[in-house]
Design brief:
463 residues; Agglutinin, subunit A; 5-stranded antiparallel beta sheet; 4-stranded antiparallel beta sheet; 12% helix; 36% strand; disordered N terminus; binds 2-acetamido-2-deoxy-beta-D-glucopyranose; membrane
């Protein structure tokens, strides 16, 4: 039987890429099933793509992946925000025509959005499209219509549809960036959970106003372009014309928020290279560093730095952002336990959420204006303008071409500081007396030590 040979095929295609030629029956019939540790995928006729289980976290996810490259590259994910399933789960195309994920407890979950029609057969196609048919052989559902992170050759991102990045290369859950084919004709990238408006965008094709049914298309020679509703090419993102022999192209929004067109050399062990990307600057995607952090380029890579006076919420997790270690409520009355200084993050740019913009003569004047205002957590100083802000600050990144200085009000506990004071700082007479007293004692000790040393020297000279 066909199903018995599948585990063998999975191994076979993973390690012997040259042998993928023989066509196979791709029709998956009712009653077929998959398990993560047994027959884990239904392969396309050439073995290029598979539909089934892939490793996700401490369990498995379900989707379509490139089966002909050593690293299983997921190109479509079912129920992507569900928890990984255990190895005892199974995927079943039931005899009554449903495609379900069955848990060890016997609970069934639908893999495709509920369709009123009974499934008669399924197919994993060599295009990467996973297709379900009814009894009339009509397509009732196809994965190409529900893109997740990736567009494959022949697949279209239609108007109103979005791609969402994954959390990471190994976690296919929904991440923090999106690419939207807008109904105004513009193809735009934003962070998640933002309105579709220009202040939030970090990439745009610049084709707004070109009709309400513009689509993003990819051809098998790596040609990536936009078509309007009458089928005219309105913009080439890449020229195309790349090698097509045993080479696969796909476009995806990567976990870092950047769009990339990749090529996979199927005769070179799946060797992957980047063909195109709208930017090489990994700090461009807005929100990479979470709240109150800013992105800095470090050679090829990036780092997130917390604002002065802030610390990472979760060590090693950029997205979680930074938080400060004092409460702003203490600004007015804190019995002198906390006082404030202003610290600067130079050449950084942020989302502008200022509540008050002043014209100032100097940076010092801007610092003083924020210090004296309990509502002010930070101020942006640039070109004689002082823009007072409340926390949190978002979308921060270092840009050496931008003179903006972020001035941050930092609370420091009075026991530990040698920093400069700025503006109105709460005073505590008792504390000052204590400091003066301690300083005097310190001075006295130093004098004693020096005179002691001198006396020893004198004695040593005498004898
Ligand atoms: C697969 O199924 C389709 C649609 O049901 C049918 O047209 C086709 O002939 C089948 N192919 C094979 C190889 O069975
Ligand atoms: C599509 O673009 C072509 C060429 O620019 C233009 O002539 C045509 O009117 C456009 N169609 C729509 C619906 O905007
Ligand atoms: C855009 O596509 C939708 C759905 O395919 C269709 O209903 C609508 O008429 C199209 N609009 C234009 C201007 O072509
Ligand atoms: C495709 O490339 C292989 C080697 O990588 C070569 O043997 C074959 O002739 C090429 N086929 C075509 C149609 O160019
Ligand atoms: C992978 O691709 C790159 C660029 O296309 C090439 O320079 C490199 O030699 C390839 N590596 C292998 C193992 O084929
Ligand atoms: C990182 O932080 C984000 C935002 O707080 C959270 O959603 C995500 O689960 C965290 N990731 C890890 C690996 O802890
Ligand atoms: C906050 O942390 C900084 C550096 O870790 C420290 O100098 C400062 O005193 C702390 N502020 C408070 C209010 O604890």
């Amino acid at each position: 039987m066909v199903s018995i040979s599948f585990p063998f095929l999975v191994c076979f295609f993973s390690f012997h890429l040259h042998a993928i030629a023989q066509p196979r029956n791709s029709n998956i019939s009712l009653g077929s099933s998959l398990t993560p540790t047994g027959t884990s995928a239904w392969l396309s006729p050439s073995g290029l793509y598979g539909f089934g289980f892939y490793s996700q976290g401490n369990g498995y996810g379900v989707g379509v992946f490139l089966a002909a490259v050593p690293q299983r590259t997921v190109v479509w994910t079912a129920n992507r925000d569900d928890s990984p399933v255990p190895s005892t789960s199974s995927l079943v195309l039931t005899t009554d025509g449903r495609l379900i994920l069955r848990s060890p407890q016997g609970q069934d979950e639908s893999i495709v959005p509920d369709s009123s029609q009974k499934i008669e057969a399924a197919a994993m196609r060599d295009t990467g499209n996973f297709v379900l048919f009814n009894s009339d052989h009509d397509i009732i559902w196809e994965s190409f219509k529900y893109p997740t992170t990736t567009i494959l050759p022949g697949q279209v991102l239609s108007a109103g549809k979005e791609l969402f990045s994954s959390v990471s290369e190994t976690d296919q859950s929904r991440g923090i960036f999106r690419l939207k084919m807008q109904t105004d004709g513009n193809l735009v990238q934003y962070p998640v959970d933002t309105p579709d408006t220009a202040p939030y965008s970090y990439y745009a094709s610049g084709t707004d106003g070109r009709g309400d049914n513009v689509t993003l298309n990819l051809d098998d020679d790596g040609h990536l372009y936009l078509l309007n509703s009458t089928g005219s090419n309105i913009k080439d993102l890449t020229p195309g014309g790349h090698e097509t022999n045993r080479t696969l192209y796909l476009m995806k929004i990567d976990p870092d928020g950047i769009l990339r067109l990749y090529s996979y050399g199927l005769n070179q062990n799946g060797n992957r290279s980047i063909i195109w990307s709208p930017t090489n600057n990994k700090c461009v995607p807005k929100g990479l560093c979470g709240l109150n952090g800013y992105c800095v380029n470090q050679d090829e890579d990036v780092d997130c730095i917390c604002l002065p006076g802030f610390a990472p919420v979760m060590e090693g997790n950029f997205t979680a952002g930074c938080e400060r270690n004092f409460s702003s409520e203490s600004c007015k009355n804190d019995n002198g336990r906390i006082r404030y200084i202003i610290q600067a993050a130079v050449n950084t740019v942020w989302e502008n959420t200022g509540y008050s913009e002043l014209s100032v003569r100097s940076r010092e004047e801007c610092e003083a204006a924020c210090s004296q205002d309990c509502n002010c957590d930070a101020a942006m100083f640039k070109d004689g303008k002082c823009n007072k802000q409340k926390l949190p600050l978002r979308y921060g990144r270092r840009n050496l071409d931008d003179s903006n200085v972020a001035l941050i009000k930092v609370g420091i506990s009075s026991s530990s500081d040698e920093s400069r004071k700025h503006g109105d700082v709460p005073k505590d007479p008792q504390r000052d007396i204590l400091i003066i007293g301690l300083s005097l004692i310190g001075f006295a000790i130093i004098v004693l030590v020096i005179s002691g040393a001198l006396m020893l020297k004198v004695l040593a000279l005498k004898f």
